[in-house]
Amino acid sequence: MTLYRKTALIEAHQWFKNGDHPHDRVGKQELDEVALLSAHPELLDEAQGMVGPVLENAPTYERLEGAVVRFFRRPDVSGDAKCRHCDAAMHVHGWIDTLEGGHIVCPGDWIATGSAGERWPIKPGIFAATYADTRSPAGGVDENTSDGYHTFKELYRYRLLYNAALFNEWARRDEKATRLEDCFGVHKSTRHSDGEPAFGGGWFVVVATLPTGQITNHYEMADWDLFHVPVRERAATWDGHTPADVADRLARFICGGAK
Ligand SMILES: [Zn+2]
């Protein structure tokens, strides 16, 4: 599944009805200052800015629709029509904006949040098969969820540090290589080969090309300095590998031994 290649799942909440997601903020909302001023420009005092008493009496408004999971509404689909996924009426469904454009949310679907803040729905059956054993007592999955031995946070940290230790060694090895086929071309870059910032920015990619194939990982910029490897303006072109490919390439590399 592409979501593994792109991101780590850091949080998930099950959705049954409008307002269920913790970030939906349905109900009475206080208008913030910017929204208040744009709605009521007459409240701005040119000399003093906004006056305190006015702010204290700032109006509220009722937010009826979830900010994360919105109402499902399409002119071409009747609200009474039955969903082909879950058989429930369409008017009890939600809609979520995703990187791919958007997705219908059935009651009972889980809303996953990735480490870059992106969200997408997961069917309960798939969620249970994939994540049920890692659920924390609170009912959600986050970086502190543990399999009984390690939390996600620990495992990602281990992966990062082992990765950095290995790539740093390989970068030293690259420096000494006298033949091109002995060079793994280890590097890091904030941009993918097409020039786009990795994951939209704030991330970087590390790349090595082993005799068994290319391997890559993404990390947040906070960990940039752990990798003492050459920096490239743009990363090498991604060859389409999946995390499973990386595991396979590493395993074959280890079995074959380094040249
Ligand atoms: Zn449905």
The string of secondary-structure elements, in order, is HEEHEEHEEEEEEHHEEEH
Structural class: alpha+beta
Supply Rg.
Answer: 24 Å
> What portion of residues belong to β-strands?
15-25%
N-C termini distance: 33 Å
Give the proportion of residues in helices: 10-25%
Topology:
Blueprint: H1 2-6, E1 9-14, E2 27-30, H2 33-39, E3 44-45, E4 49-50, H3 52-56, E5 60-63, E6 69-71, E7 94-96, E8 103-105, E9 110-114, E10 119-122, H4 124-131, H5 152-176, E11 187-189, E12 203-210, E13 213-220, H6 243-256
Antiparallel strand pairs: 1-9, 2-5, 3-4, 6-7, 7-8, 9-10, 11-12, 12-13
The structure holds zinc ion.
Zinc ion binds at residues 83, 85-86, 88, 93, 106.
Task: Describe this protein's structure.
With 259 residues, this protein is of the alpha+beta class. The protein has 2 domains: 2-26 and 64-134, no CATH class; 152-256, no CATH class. The protein is 25% helix and 21% strand. The chain has 6 helices and 13 strands. The chain has helices spanning 2-6, 33-39, 52-56, 124-131, 152-176, 243-256, and strands at residues 9-14, 27-30, 44-45, 49-50, 60-63, 69-71, 94-96, 103-105, 110-114, 119-122, 187-189, 203-210, 213-220. A 3-stranded antiparallel beta sheet has the order 1-9-10. A 3-stranded antiparallel beta sheet has the order 6-7-8, with no helix packed on it. The chain is elongated. Zinc ion is lined by residues 83, 85-86, 88, 93, 106.
